Amino acid sequence: MARILINSIVLYLVAFIYDVNGKLSNKLVGGAYGYITDYPFQVSVRIHGDHHLCGGCIISNFHVLTSASCITSDVNIILGNLKVLSGTNDRNNRDNYGKIHDVDLVIIHHEYSPRKFWANDICLLKLSNELQFNRQVVLPSIEFLYERFHLEIIGWGKPPLPFYIERLEKLNVYSILRTECSKYFRSGYILSPGQSCILPSIPAASFIKGDGGNPVLSFASGSFIGIVSLITTSANDPTVITELFGYYDKWMKLTTEKF
């Protein structure tokens, strides 16, 4: 059974749900096909091994990074039954290429706060057994400004077709100014320093259930710069992401070295 490490965390999700559903199992809509050979670090975080909760990103042979809201916000999620699926394009692993990994430890950021508009929405999963993969994601080393910079989201989706395909997709997005993003949310909802907002580059595309925790990549360099956090119910509203620059040295690196 997975051990859970949650430092001084109190969940107040019910009163603050508003119209943000980043914690629900989401999918990309309107993206293009992606291939796990191009994004071998992409994983599906699951319960009981067969139900997709959210996306995640391999950052070491033992660690997966995802959103804290994915792991904590539903009372029906049994943490001891968390699994990680890696190595496949198919979210249901019908090609049998994927491998299921047990989660040994859940490490939620000690300042994660749904009360503060889901500030510090970041979580590490330590796996029971070592992962074997051929290419690690490029982690951020310095902070840089990327307002309106071309970005890319990877995840599993449902294309706008009359049949249902649960395979890996990629979607081009761009970031918007924090001042512009704040206009979309109710008064009192303030972005924390570690949050920013993105919109799809294609107007018809959107985020729906299961995109929480998906990696946000720099389109130019492929660097892993953030994870999807909050997804609104309106396709026209921005999605909030957790930026990794402020977490890499101060939390991610220290935590993976300790656990």
From TrEMBL:
Signal sequence extent? 1-22
Q: Where is the Peptidase S1 domain?
A: 28-257
**One term of GO molecular function:** serine-type endopeptidase activity
Q: Which InterPro entries match?
A: Peptidase_S1 (IPR050430), Peptidase_S1_PA (IPR009003), Peptidase_S1_PA_chymotrypsin (IPR043504), Peptidase_S1A (IPR001314), Trypsin_dom (IPR001254)
One of its GO biological process terms is: proteolysis
In terms of Pfam families, this protein maps to:
Trypsin
* UniProt keyword annotation of Nucleus present: no
The alphabetical list of record keywords is: Disulfide bond, Hydrolase, Protease, Serine protease, Signal
SUPFAM superfamilies per record: Trypsin-like serine proteases (SSF50494)
> Which family would the database say this protein is a member of?
Belongs to the peptidase S1 family.
- Protein name, UniProt field: Peptidase S1 domain-containing protein
